[in-house]
Amino acid sequence: xxxxxxxxxxxxxxxxxxxxREHIADGVAAAQLPVTLTAPVxxxxxxxxxxxxxxGEEDKPFWKDHLGARVNAIRTRTLIDEADIVVxxxxxxxxxxxxxFDAGYAxxxxxxxxxxxxxEHDHALKEINGAAMAxxxxxxxxxxxxxxxxxxx
Length: 153
Fold this sequence. Notes:
The chain has 6 helices and 5 strands. It is of the alpha/beta class. Helix 1 (20-30) packs parallel to helix 6 (139-151) and helix 2 (44-55) crosses helix 3.
């Protein structure tokens, strides 16, 4: 496929407690990039309850989480598999084990990864950053990379 006509699929993994995805979406739209953005379910309660809401209640929290994780993995794995680039955001407030898992899954699949996090997490994320093609501090830097990669500008 000609790069000028390709629609790039970008998966936005990770932290769900800030508006970083919206900043990337706004930047992609402003640059008129041929991009489709996808993401996990970002409604925390809906994501946590997905398994029991569909498959039935569980008495133990472990099994409730297990069901939810497996149902959510259908979406996550499919969208990462389809992605050209995976952006993984690690926020400052919570430990995002799911983001680390998504980064590892994307790396195992040979996906181009861009990490997005504050400098304070550099040491903790050294292996993930080592697998990434770029580490950004701001969503606008992600948009800049996408613009360059897609348009060569």
